[in-house]
User: Fold this.
Amino acid sequence: MDNRRAAQLVASRCAFRTRSCSSALGELPRLMGETGSVIAMDVGGSAIKGALIDVHGRTTAVVRRPTERVQGPDAVVERILATAVELRDQLGEGARAAGVAVPGFVDQIAGVARSASNIGWHEVPLRAMLEERLGIPVVLGHDGRAGGLAEGLLGGARGFRDYFFLSIGTGIGGAMVLGGRSYQGRDGFAGEIGHVVVRPDGPRCRCGARGCLEAIASAGAIADRYATVTGDPAATAELVVERAYAGDADAEAIWRDAVEALAAALAAYTVLLAPEAIVIGGGLALAGDALFSPLARSLARKLTLRPAPQLVAAELGDEAGCLGAGLSAWLALGVSEHELRWNGAA
Ligand SMILES: [Zn+2]
Assistant:
């Protein structure tokens, strides 16, 4: 479906559907009880993950299929819609709502996927399209913010009200949680720490700017920079970290630069927003102490005015986005955060 047809669909919808999802959901009576399940989906550049999650966190009907972005954004949208319908059909009347997390820039208030470089879509009114197809309320969210929500209720950020969820993978993403609430900014762009310029004369970023954090410290950038210096295109970021600690001078210089860049960006975040913790996930977080120890030291050195926030490892791995999508659907149905702490965390 192209964007114009999608926009026509939105325009033809009834008043209920033109209101924001959360306000419409807030008016739903809770007389139905918390039976049934929500559809939870996490759309990534390589895979679409989906599941049905009941109010106690029991997960069924887990699906994982390739995004197949090479077929173009319209085909990806169609795969998302088809996967959601498939999940709904397993529940029938028991499908209460759906939470769908997508990458890139997402305006969750408007329900629009603004853009995503790894999928190539622009201005897709995905919430309206999903509600049209599913016939139930839908929460459209950002994958990083969904992950941050799940880490807050179920994972490494449990107990924190003010934290930043930093995801370091092929790219670098982030989610700001302020006073216990996810913050998306005016139009869904908040938290994009990967595009904070930390080296004004640094390498070119895919966003067009120079010296962005992502162009220096993402797993993709670390592997690329190492390949450029050494001519070894096969080394992953994980291998570069390993070699850095094994005495490879090129790997050591690239890794030190990445850690310093991360510390610079996190120091700026800390000075501005004074978080209690920085929760770090994504593939590179699996480096463990090799990342956390030098990053904590560098961050402490840069923060002369105040103590550094705790650095905490994320706990939910690549399940965070899907769990967060399900949690956001239950929250929108009026279930409290307390009821959604499925692992009994305080
Ligand atoms: Zn950038």
Q: What stands out?
A: Residues 195, 205, 207, 209, 212, 214 surround zinc ion (CB under 6 Å).
